[in-house]
TrEMBL record:
Signal peptide: none annotated. It is an enzyme of class 6 (ligase). It comes from the Eukaryota. It comes from Aceria tosichella. Keywords: Aminoacyl-tRNA synthetase, ATP-binding, Ligase, Membrane, Nucleotide-binding, Protein biosynthesis, Transmembrane, Transmembrane helix. SUPFAM superfamilies: Anticodon-binding domain of a subclass of class I aminoacyl-tRNA synthetases (SSF47323), Nucleotidylyl transferase (SSF52374), ValRS/IleRS/LeuRS editing domain (SSF50677). GO terms for cellular component: mitochondrion. Residues 91-732 form the Aminoacyl-tRNA synthetase class Ia domain. Pfam families: Anticodon_1, tRNA-synt_1. Belongs to the class-I aminoacyl-tRNA synthetase family. This is isoleucine--tRNA ligase.
Length: 1102
């Protein structure tokens, strides 16, 4: 018999095709045994042979493989950037935007236009990705999305690049000869080159944006140099002029000495590492009223400190703060007998004392002076007449000012209104004359400054000469090099000055209050940025909209020829409309610099407007609009005109730097022209910085090219990275190792989940789309509830623009929830049940719903992966018919959720305490003993209704729940220790991996341990307090581990519950088909369980 058994086993191992022949041979052998042995002996031998020989027959054949369903899919489990390119070429992907239902509610994502200058950087990529996520989410939740991309084609960056190109062309044309460059070129020629350059940059950037797969129509875009856009800009100015919001005045502005133009606040960057020569300067006070008996009758000097000594020539006042306390410092020097009395703020006396000691002075505080006592004081001016100036030699006043900080400088501030915003408004407030600036547009002293200073550069020899003049007249007390904060122009990285200049302004004082009121009620993310924008708008009463450059839209105003300072602007709606007609006729606004007056300002038009001017006596203005007023008007491209208040954009999404730029400009212009904000919602994200937190720049060599990232990792991983880092209150740190590790892992987990679902749903005929969710198994109903919770959470995050939270929730669900808890548990049913069994249909129903929900939840962030997955298995509805994320409120079941989550927590606890023995648990019978009656009552219903699922959940042979009222704690174990073999040691990890969270809102307080079915959140988190274990010495070779839990019930102090897991090796045997340990009927059916016998009997194949 042994020889026969071995022979048959060997043959079967080599060829399963002989199965039928071998079975026939077995029955022949069976007859032979009955001939030569007694009947009882034959039955004993034949049973042994049949069990072993046929088991080997099944193992050696493919019967089990052909009847076990194993999910198989061709969907790649790794992300391939090359596949994204083919997906983008697919019409289904490319035409998604164009095939939207026009009857849906519109949702407008307005694109703030980037400069058409140079290739895109990672900040551009992040910005466009976040806008695309918002657009795609809106589209799949029932909206018709309008996402029109735009470009800002004017401005200094483009002009500087064109200047370089012209210089390079001149250099090449002069190669080999004298390098004499043309210093000027015709406006028309320059603007033609600038326009061509801008178009080339749009094409360059558009190619990069197309690689990102944005949801937009690339044939429909806006540019700020388009004739229709420029015409609306001219009309907008005319309307503002008619509202008397436009004025021209001599006011301080940031002035670029390099580019000879005013600079917008948004283009200014204050840098703390600027170094200047600072000076302490003495101004003698005239007849000070607070000399006491202890103060000798000596001159009293107001000591001021400045980092811009070149402005001292135009000092008009000394500012103080009446809320501060000042003091008189008496100083003397023994070696030369010099004595001085200084007036400084009380808060700076120690700093002054240190300086005096450095200079060899002794000092004492002699008199304390309240700040209000300085009102009415006057002092003697300096430098008047010293440099040949013709300034007024009259005494100068002390002026009270809130901006003076007693702890900075000396608490007394030198005031020069031509070179400071606060200085200017202080002088105007006190009705004092400002006067003309003595510094020209190149940063050199004008001839009015006198022969000594005229022509000297303020940052070098001009400063030195000013200090020399002060020293000659004993007004200079001390100088030193000082590092401090100073404004720089971001376009040139060069310092600017604040200087009064004749400019065109928009009066924002009448607009800002309305903006602030509207901003208080609109949506902001993050919320903290709302006040930032409000403060920015409130900080300036006027906006300089004029620039002294060539590449831009000209301000449509006229002047009389004899108006040398160009102070009186001439503008009329009919004249502006004539300019617009010429614009359409000439195609571009370049005609402003080329056509004759007779064409641009016909006399009959002036007469029609009833303006008392002659064409030949008028000239056109030469200033152009600030680029922020260009782009700040872009909201009109999404509305039905300049005055349409009904069609606000739904979302403005930009970086935090746009608070001073596009957000402010758009808000002011929209409120002024149509009485509302440009958008209903503001979203602000951080900057892309390197791993050291430094802003990316070419000079630092830390710039990351998005095209390289797309090539290495693909677009969807970068989209996921952008979403996970779009917190708004933080910058976005770029780390390559993050793309290679966590981001790549998350992408692959999402892909693997889709791959499994596509394979599992391959026999889609088994999916009953009409299956009532109440007819599902209890465990499937529980996971339907989990799908509801997951999808509704992601939905809420998308609605609130918390893309980082949405991405994290998706990662948590596919990684820590769906796969380890649900898929692992239902694998046995999915693989081994009869294909059309009721519970297998129940599982497939949940898997099908999970597939469709995951498609929708991940689509806004990873659209390429979703389109790729849909190519292998379509969703239940076409993408353009999606109206929500696919979940239903009817799936929610809080009571079942509480019951099952508690069991899942016990499962995680079981895995934790049995970690070293988990491999042997499949053939073990396990009983969970608990000592709480109400908790037992809650859980026993589920355990009894789904016994086989419980074994799969806990990965055991059998699983039962038992109530044990009296459960003793082993000796030596306390509530806050862990005991293993009665050896107490601290528990460093005191929480289970999952928990339920707080109690449901609206429920009344309950006593600790009250786990009623009516309160679905009563258990809360299970906190592991202690564990212990003991093996051997018990009957039936039983082992157990136990412990104590704190069931929080959503409260800080919950009830302590004791538990035990008792386990022993099972008497059951392994089914050779499903590999579960169960009861086998070996006398009839070949070491398979009843379920597998039924499947084999039907002859089904996978």
């Amino acid at each position: 018999l042994c020889v026969i058994h071995h022979l048959i086993s060997s043959v079967l191992a080599q060829s399963s095709s002989l199965q039928s022949l071998l079975l026939l041979y077995y029955y022949t052998l069976h007859i032979y045994l009955y001939i030569y042995y007694t009947p009882n002996k034959c039955r004993q031998i034949s049973g042994m042979v049949r069990a072993n020989v046929l088991t080997e027959a099944l193992k050696g054949s493919d019967i089990t493989r052909r009847t076990v369903f194993v999910p198989r899919s061709q969907f790649p489990h790794r992300h391939d950037p090359k596949v994204e390119l083919s997906i983008q070429e697919d019409t289904k992907f490319a035409h998604t935007y164009l095939e939207q239902d026009p009857n849906r509610k519109p949702y407008v994502v307005h694109d703030g236009p980037p400069f058409a200058n140079g290739p895109i950087h990672l900040g551009h990529a992040v910005n466009k990705i976040l806008k695309d996520i918002a657009a795609r989410y809106a589209m799949i939740t029932g909206h018709k999305v309008e996402f029109i991309t735009g470009w800002d084609c004017h401005g200094l960056p483009i002009e500087l690049q064109v200047n370089k190109m012209i210089e390079e062309q001149q250099r090449q044309s002069n190669y080999g000869g004298s390098l004499v460059f043309e210093t000027t070129t015709s406006p028309e020629h320059f603007r033609t080159k600038a326009r061509a350059y801008a178009k080339s940059q749009i094409d360059l950037q558009m190619a990069a944006f197309k690689r990102m797969g944005l949801l937009t129509d690339w044939n429909k875009r806006y540019t700020t140099d388009d004739p229709s856009y420029v015409a609306n800009q001219l009309r907008a100015f005319s309307q503002l002029f008619e509202q008397k919001l436009i004025f021209k005045d001599l006011m301080p502005v940031h002035w670029s000495l390099v580019n000879k133009t005013s600079v917008a606040d948004a283009d200014i960057d204050y840098r703390s590492n600027h170094i200047s020569k600072s000076a302490y300067v003495l101004y003698e006070i005239i007849d000070p009223p607070f000399f006491g008996a202890d103060v000798p009758k000596q001159p009293l000097y107001a000591l001021i400190w400045t980092t811009t000594p070149w402005t001292l020539l135009e000092n008009k006042a000394i500012a103080f703060n009446k809320q501060e306390t000042y003091c008189i410092v008496k100083a003397w020097r023994a070696q030369d007998g010099e004595k001085k009395n200084f007036l400084v703020s009380f808060d700076t006396k120690h700093k002054l004392g240190d300086l005096l000691q450095r200079l060899g002075y002794q000092y004492e505080m002699s008199t304390y002076v309240p700040g209000r006592s300085l009102t009415g004081l006057k002092y003697k001016p300096l430098l008047d007449g010293l440099a040949g100036t013709k300034q007024d030699n009259s005494a100068r006043p002390f002026l009270d000012a809130d901006f003076v900080d007693g702890a900075k400088g000396t608490g007394l501030v030198h005031t020069a209104p031509n070179y400071g915003f606060e200085d200017y408004y202080l002088i105007k407030k006190n009705s004092l004359a400002v006067g003309q600036s003595m510094v020209d547009y190149d940063g050199k002293f004008r001839c009015e400054a006198g022969d000594i200073l005229a022509g000297k550069y303020i940052f070098s020899d001009g400063t030195q000469e000013t200090l020399s003049l002060l020293d000659q007249h004993q007004a200079l007390f001390f100088t030193e090099m000082t590092q401090h904060s100073y404004p720089y122009e971001t376009r040139t990285n060069q310092p600017v000055i604040i200087r009064t200049s004749q400019q065109t302004f928009l009066d924002t004082s009448r607009i800002v209050p309305r903006c602030i009121k509207a901003l208080e009620s609109c949506s902001f993310f993050p919320e903290s940025r709302r006040q930032h924008l409000i403060n920015t708008l409130a900080s300036s009463p006027s906006w300089c909209i004029s620039r002294q450059r060539l590449w831009g839209t000209p301000i449509p105003v006229l002047y009389e020829k004899n108006d040398t300072n160009k102070q009186k602007m001439i503008c009329h709606p009919l004249i502006v409309e004539h300019f617009c007609k010429l614009l359409y006729k000439k195609r571009f606004i370049d005609y402003w610099w080329t056509v004759d007056n007779s064409e641009i300002i016909p006399q009959e038009l002036l007469d029609k407007c009833k303006l008392p001017y002659k064409t030949e006596n008028l000239v056109r203005g030469t200033d152009i609009f600030d680029v922020w007023s260009d782009s700040g008007l872009s909201w009109h491209t999404t509305s039905n005109g300049l005055n349409d208040a009904k069609n606000q954009a739904d979302l403005y999404l930009e970086g935090t730097d746009q608070i001073r730029g596009w957000f402010s400009a758009s808000s002011l212009l929209s409120m002024a022209l149509r009485g509302c904000l440009p958008t209903k919602r503001f979203f602000l994200h951080g900057f892309a910085v390197d791993k050291n937190g430094r802003k990316m720049s070419k000079s630092l060599g830390n710039v990351v090219d998005p095209a390289e990232l797309f090539k290495l990792y693909g677009v969807d991983p970068i989209r996921l990275w952008a979403a996970k880092n779009a917190g708004g209150n933080r910058d976005i740190v770029v780390r390559h190792d993050e793309f290679r590790s966590s981001i790549n892992d998350t992408i692959n987990k999402i892909r693997n989940t889709f791959k499994y679902l596509i394979g599992a749903l391959a026999d889609h005929d088994a999916v009953d789309g009409k299956l009532d969710h109440t007819k599902l198994t209890l465990f499937d109903q529980y996971y339907l509830n989990k799908l509801y919770r997951f999808a509704s959470t992601v939905d809420e995050h998308y609605k609130n623009y918390r893309y980082d939270s949405a991405a994290n929730e998706i990662n948590r669900f596919v990684t820590s929830d769906f796969s380890p808890n649900y898929i692992t548990t239902i694998k046995d049913i999915l693989y081994c049940d009869e294909l059309n069994s009721a519970r297998r249909k129940s599982c497939l129903t949940v898997l099908n719903l999970a597939y469709n929900i995951l498609l929708r939840c991940t689509y806004p962030i990873t659209p390429h992966i979703v389109h790729e997955a849909a190519g292998y298995m379509r969703s239940a509805e076409p993408l353009n018919e999606w109206k929500d994320l696919g979940y239903k409120a009817a799936w929610k079941n809080d009571v079942l959720h509480d019951q099952m989550e508690t069991l899942v927590q016990f499962k995680n606890l079981f895995i934790r305490v049995m970690s070293s023995k988990l491999g042997n648990m499949r053939n073990s019978d396990v009983v969970l003993n608990i000592n709480d009656k109400k908790l037992y009552k809650k859980l026993i219903k589920v355990c009894n209704s789904e016994p086989e699922l419980m074994t799969e959940l806990f990965r055991t042979c059998t699983f039962n729940l038992s109530l044990r009222d009296k459960m003793a704690v082993p000796e030596g174990v306390t509530e806050r220790t862990v005991c293993d073999g009665y050896t107490a040691q601290p528990d460093t990890t005191n929480r289970t991996p999952e928990y339920l969270g707080a109690a449901a809102p609206g429920k009344k307080d309950q006593k600790d341990g009250d786990f009623s079915d009516e309160d679905p959140e009563s258990v809360g988190s299970l906190e592991l307090l202690t564990t212990w274990s003991k093996s051997g010495g018990l009957e039936n070779n039983e082992h157990w581990v136990g412990g104590q839990l704190m069931a929080s019930g959503g409260r800080p102090n919950g009830k302590v519950i004791r538990f035990e897991f008792s386990y022993r090796k099972s008497a059951n045997r392994k089914c050779i088909r499903c590999r579960r340990y169960t009861v086998l009927d070996i006398s009839e059916h070949m070491n398979v369980c009843d379920r597998c016998r039924a499947v084999l009997t039907t002859g089904q194949t996978s």
